Amino acid sequence: MTEGSLAALVALGAFHGLNPGMGWLFAVARGLQERARARVLESIPAIAAGHAASVGVVAVLVALTQSVVATRIVAIVGGAVLVGFGLWRLLSQRHFRWVGMRLSLWQLAGWSFLMSSVHGAGLMLVPVITASGGAAVGGHDHGLGAAQGSAVMSGIFVTGVHTLAMFLVAGAIAVVVYEIVGLTVLRRTWFNLDRVWALALIGAGAVTVLTA
Amino acid sequence: MALWKPDPTFYPSPRDAAAAPPEKLAYVAAFDRSAAKPDAIAVLDVDPDSGSYGQVVGWTELPYPGDELHHFGWNACSSSLCPSSPHPHVERRYLIVPGLRSSRIYVLDTKEQPTSPQIVKVLEPEELAKRAGYSRPHTVHCGPEGLYVTALGGANGEDGPGGIALLDHNSFEVLGRWEVDRGPQYLAYDAWWHIAHDVLVTSEWGTPSMVEDGVVGELLLGRKYGHSLHFFDLRKRRHVQTVDLGDEHQMVLELRPAHDPTKQYGFVGVVVNVEDLSASVWLWHREGDEFAATKVITIPAETPGPDDRAALPPVIEPFGAVPPLVTDIDLSVDDKWLYVSCWGTGELKRYDVSDPFHPVEAGSVRIGGITRRTPHPAAPDLPLAGGPQMVEVSRDGKRVYVTNSLYGAWDDQFYPDGVGAWMIKLDSGEDLTFDERFFPHGDDFRGLRPHQTRLQGGDASSDSYCYP
After folding, report:
1. Which among B135, B170, B396, B398 has most CB atoms closer than 10 A?
2. Which CATH class is domain B14-455?
3. Measured between beta carbons, which residues in chain B are less than 8 angstroms from residue A100?
4. Percentages of chain A per state (helix, strand, coil), in multiples of 5
5. Residues of chain A with C-beta less than 8 angstroms from the C-beta of B2
6. Per-residue pLDDT averaged across B397-414, rounded?
């Protein structure tokens, strides 16, 4: 794993954390509902856990595939999927529907998992994983089994770095909005990240295919 | 097309919404009782600095006669900012306008020409019947799963049960029946929710056969009209609890939950108590795991003088009294003031409900009324029929708009010599007073009767909020 891809992982994590729809807003809402900062703080790990699960599935899957299929093919297929998904996100009128505000922390993690999955949060990492060349953590290859073992490790590592960045950014924003700024800020600063997000997916996919 | 920034009319909290700029236009449903010509959405200039203030400045006529426009609502509102499934970049631009008698639903676009909304979609009654099994669409609310439209009647030859149909908030297609388990609920009327608590509340009027030809004396005295509240799990769409107000309390109509999402109480009006013709307002509130309802306002019937007694319409003549008939109530966005329409006696009352269990009357105006016929101060020689009926409050709580028609067949029973057509504006400050510059009436409405008002950008009964 190069420094470049590490930085990209962190940047994507920060981008996901920044999106109000990915969870910090829900954390703030839970805090405001009971006027308790503890509710904000306890929500962020649950949201991060759901996000990690969603991203982790993709990361491990891609890394595992890379251990048996040529990286180039994985990159091309992954990139194509990414472009397709991004186009769908950009053009589709449909959006995530979830009813219910009174959630347990488990349910909140589940909500975050679904929210991240339908937005293709894990897919966005595909270029980084393929660029870093699959089993980057293990080093010594001793047959297929070891390669797969290190691929899983690599997937977990990617997920961990990404989620940590997401967790820190989302947590910081949630606390600042809850404690200091207030939610009126939403009216001025809630940019349509869904569109930026869709464009990011398409761009990342295109780059992956072209550089594969 | 989605916006880059949230629609400026969406507010995270009721506190923020109360600081919204004053509305410049009001949309009013107007219907032709004879069903000879089409109904219309009238657009009124409510900007006091404008030259045409208080006048009808736009008029969108519908393509068909006989719809009986009644209530309507916006395609999107502040609930779009809720964190569980946020979609803040949709626009509040379409009015969803049901025909209560025809069961047709119109979608009007107010964006391109705000004073002349364009009809962009018509949902035929067959679609509502086929997909949701309902007819007589009434209240429209924008919420977590799309648009919630209450309906009074069943479909395909069935009188009931009434319930809620769900509409897609992009395509406006009917998605289906909302209820998964309606429990004992059969009668329908209004619905709203405690959105942050996953609670939906419904109220009861009557089925189409009970209301469309006027109030039926035997049914009323037999206590057959609605007298209960129903509480549903908004998430699971399941009936949880019925709260019966007592069968003497006939017709439980407008639901006004607290706008503060941390609160779980609300007000509902009851038209008439058949034991003494009084009207009442009830407070529903959380009590442990359940909801309870408490009568917090009682408005007694008025006994007219001997001269007026002869003027009583046949429907109430045997009782020798004028029932107040609380047919609409509205709660200000800050949850401080409750406005109560007494359509029978011709009075609009204002209550301070800072302590919801103990409302304190704090202002009243008289206009119209079955026997009083109180004129408007701007036309003191013109006795007015009808009474204060639909009441809508601006987001900042300073302006209150009121129209005079209740429902075609019922207008004719209680005001048999003609209900007329008028709309007024009240200024709500320390006192509640008439705005003498605002009194569109009579021919201004082109022979149609005005019903619900919706204010540009939202009002006190259009939006729900997920943040306190």
Report:
1. B135
2. mainly beta
3. 84, 144, 198, 234-235
4. 80, 0, 20
5. 192, 194-195
6. 97
